[in-house]
């Protein structure tokens, strides 16, 4: 089971979110294909900036709760290693496509999610209360910086800067179910 909020955030909002992470001592590991089993750990906004546009999935971790190294698995098709989403941690997952914003002036949907458990080797480990509270704090921040738009089965938090960019700067959101979410915002 997984807690998750869905959103549309522009690059500027993602940078603000990352800045908050670093101020609270969080670290970020980008989901990349690595040549070996050594992954990158980002600890500052300056280090994160190159990944804000072109890295879709990030693993957020906090030294206070991070107990087990992230597991790397070899993917022969890509000729490199990738991070297993359920092994090691605990982490919070931040998914947000970025390239289309700069290339097409479109902002895609993303999510912040927290799994209720993770694995260390073959042992299933439930999420600790501190990790749950960290997730709630980060989700609350995104909600405070956004406007909620409810569709039939799910809703999205649309960043206030994203709304401004769509209304005043010619940006659009990727369509969800044929709906223009910006038109649904009062």
Describe the structure.
Helices cover 28% and strands 31% of the residues. With 186 residues, it is an alpha+beta fold. The chain has one domain. The strands form four sheets. The chain has a seven-stranded mixed β-sheet. A two-stranded antiparallel ribbon has the order 4-5. A hairpin with a 4-residue loop joins strand 11 and strand 12. The longest helix is centred in the last third of the chain and has 16 residues, at 129-144. It is globular. The two termini are 33 Å apart. The relative contact order is 0.20. The model has no long low-confidence stretch (mean pLDDT 92).
Summarize the structure.
By secondary structure, the protein is α+β, with helices and mostly antiparallel strands. The protein has helices at 11-23, 45-48, 99-104, 129-144, 160-168, 181-184; strands at residues 2-8, 27-30, 57-61, 72-75, 80-83, 92-95, 106-107, 109-115, 117-120, 123-126, 146-150, 155-159, 172-173. The longest helix is centred in the last third of the chain and has 16 residues, at 129-144.
